[in-house]
Amino acid sequence: MDTNTIILSCVAGYMLLCLVIGLWAMKRTKNTHDFFMASRNLGVIVTGVALFSSIMSGFGFVGGPGLIYRMGASSIWILVTTPIGWALAFFLVAKRIRLLAEQRNAMSLPDIAAARYESRTVRALVAIAVLCGVVAYLATQIKAMAFVLQDIFAKNGIWGHESVVFCVAISCAVLVFYCVTGGIIASVYTDLFQGLMMMVVAVFIFFTAIGHVDRGIGGMMQIIHTDNAESASTWGTLGMLGCLSWFLLFTLGVVGQPHVVTKMMMTRRVEDARASLPITLIGYTITAMLWISIGLLMRALVLNGDHESLLRADDAAAQFLQYYAHPVLAGLAFAGLFAAIMSTADGFLNIGAAAIVHDLPKAFTGRGITRELFWARIATVGLAVLAALFALQSPIKLIGQLGAFGWGVFASALVPVIGLGLNWRSATKRAATVAIASSLVINAGIVIYQMTGGAIPYGVAGGVIALLVSTILFISISILSKPDPLAADVEAIMEL
Which residues 6+ apart lie within 8 Å of 166 measured at CB? Predict the structure, then answer.
């Protein structure tokens, strides 16, 4: 059996597994609490693996190597700083958000914000911020899946590979079926499957990659340095200010990622957070080896003339797996990649659908809607289509940069309101309102600016600008305002 047949067999087998998981999860999804919160019944291992898997998905497995290939060492700053962010997120919000979710029967992050600030306006703005970030980050997953499918289809001469639009449509259709049937239950258990598998695959890929060049990573860096010394330097081609902006964004930003913190609401017991953190950190660190090794190897091979230049930097992972990995390893990696994309996309569609059918109606009318589960599934379809259109039209071309933009949208709106707000008694609803609104305006302005051909100087991430402004406004307005009265249960939880 040749390499292409093995890869296709693994991918087809995984797609079949997705159908099975989706149908199994549908039987367990009886109401919106199951659909959005998995009945708050996740164990330590499932939670720990699901948390790192929700980030190391299309962003990490496709976008990460693409960033290394294009920018050199710059994106290593993301890998170094994100584990710090994990620890910070667990310390700041894990216990409080789980207790508050149980006390108020919360099903979403806007539920938590509404409980903390006793404000329908804050609930609405958090829901809108979640929707904006979901579209950007979900577009990352759809684009990653489409690029990989396009490469596989092209290698096997399958009709449709010439069109990115066709591959985006196929990706979107598969995601919609999986997400509509299974809800968050399908997502977290696929996270468990792909997370464990990708930890093993990442180790084999790392040693396979370093074996293709004399002196391994050192040899790759020497080749890259000879071609472009800046690319192999500490800051890479992005530059010092750009890398430091990523440092800040990915250190603080974990606290504001709804697909991360909502999973902290789903644990079976409050104390499970302490045991889940080491699993998350270990899994993230191991899978990060794939990000670094593939990107460096493909760049070194192209510079040495051993591989033709990539048409897109984001093709680095797919090209490595098809040309340099053992067929079985390539097949498992592709299957794991699709699992990562599917489960993460499911998580985003889930929190986005919750914002539409659960939070916005409560924010504007003060009550929920009837047949919430039915409308959640309809909203899922609409969000997937919107994200697919954004993936095709976005001015941000690299998958890794698109993922960083989505991360920044979440971080700038939610880090002050959730990360600080759940730990600071004096934070006010007025400050939360202004902070979120300012972050949305700044991020929208950045998108418009980039669509008209503009670029932020020195490679600084736009999300950092929005994060700094929203945080400064949040702190300043809270200090200058009279503290809002807190409900007794909220105050008790914050004093823990």
Answer: 160
- The whole-angstrom separation of Cα 373 and Cα 147 is 32
pLDDT tens by residue, 291-337? 899 999 999 999 999 999 998 898 898 899 888 998 888 888 887 77
**pTM across the whole model:** 0.86
Q: Write the pLDDT tens digit of every residue in 456-488.
A: 999 899 999 999 999 999 999 999 999 999 999
Tell me the three-class secondary structure of the chain, residue by residue. CCHHHHHHHHHHHHHHHHHHHHHHHHHHCCCHHHHHHHHHCECHHHHHHHHHHCCCCHHHHHHHHHHHHHHHHHHHHHHHHHHHHHHHHHHHHHHHHHHHHHHHCCCCHHHHHHHHHCCHHHHHHHHHHHHHHHHHHHHHHHHHHHHHHHHHHHHCCCCCCCCHHHHHHHHHHHHHHHHHHHHHHHHHHHHHHHHHHHHHHHHHHHHHHHCCCCCHHHHHHHHHHHHCCCCCCCCCCCCHHHHHHHHHHHHHHHHHCHHHHHHHCCECCCCHHHHHHHHHHHHHHHHHHHHHHHHHHHHHHHHHCCCCCCCCHHHHHHHHHHHCCCHHHHHHHHHHHHHHHHHHHHHHHHHHHHHHHHHHHHHHHCCCCCCHHHHHHHHHHHHHHHHHHHHHHCCCCCHHHHHHHHHHHHHHHHHHHHHHCCCCCCCCHHHHHHHHHHHHHHHHHHHHHHHCCCCCHHHCCHHHHHHHHHHHHHHHHHHHCCCCCCCHHHHHHHCC
The CATH code belonging to domain 3-494 is: 1.20.1730.10
Domain ranges for the chain: 3-494
The number of beta carbons lying within 10 Å of the beta carbon of residue 452 is 8
